[in-house]
Amino acid sequence: MSFIPNLTFDLHLHSCLSPCGSEDNTPANLAGMCALAGIEAAALTDHNTVGNCAAFCEAAERYGIIALPGMELTTAEEVHVVCVFGNLDAALAFEAEVFRRLPPLENDPRVFGPQIRMDSEDTVLGEERRMLSTATGIGIYEVPGLVAALGGACWPAHIDRPSFSLISNLGLWDPGLGFPFAEVSRACPPDFLDRPDLKGLPVITASDAHYLDQIMDACQQVELAEKNSSALLEWLKRPDFNAFSPLPS
């Protein structure tokens, strides 16, 4: 089997639809910044919604970037989990379940920031009124099954951080959760993964960019049999970390 190397990726980005995301993080701006950073595959993962994913995927296509629609789900335990899908229909079906299990609260943009929906040309389509910056009623043990049923992949976000992470909120890594790997931040302490429960755990990194200047330069790559979204998603569902490597610094 021949491999196409050097597919660089960042699979955790926020747009202006996330209440904590900058209004400059428009779908088109995000795609353009990913191109400048040398990112060849990206996922838009706003909090508890996929509402700007269609616009981002369209904008990314103009730059030749492989785009996956996704979401950063907040579980009932207030753990952030990145969920990505192979197509918009699957992403929207997942969003429908998330919205069904969101508390019936309305966002206050004066407190949490606006939640702006846009098209791929950055035309404002409106604001999402649901409060997205809150926990859903979906427990973390449910997440892998819900995502897999829609053909997607998921993993716990920024497990090294002191809030909204699996380690900070649950206290340890449980292999029974069914996640094949985890995400750590670029600022992850070197000895963090030396913990007994994390020893040998495969990890990727991500920018978790809420502002344009937080989009990181390409720093990791994966070898795939084909350079497309389907191959990337299949790798994320059944990752072979022999095909993954950080780029030389």
Keywords:
249 residues, 7-stranded mixed sheet, two-stranded antiparallel ribbon, 11 strands, globular
Rg calculated over all Cα atoms: 17 Å
The ordered string of helix (H) and strand (E) elements is EHEHEEHHEEHEHEEEHE
**Helical segment tally?**
7
For the biggest β-sheet, the strand order reads: 7-4-3-2-1-10-11
Mean pLDDT: 95
- Measured as a percent range, the helix fraction is 10-25%
Instruction: Tell me, briefly, the overall form.
Output: globular
Low-confidence stretches: none
Number of strands: 11
Largest sheet: 7 strands, mixed
Q: State which percent range the strand residues make up.
A: 15-25%
- Which oligomeric form is depicted? single chain
Taking the alpha carbons of the first and last residues, their distance comes to 29 Å
Helix- and strand-based class? alpha/beta
In short:
This protein has 7 helices and 11 strands. The protein has 249 residues and is of the alpha/beta class.
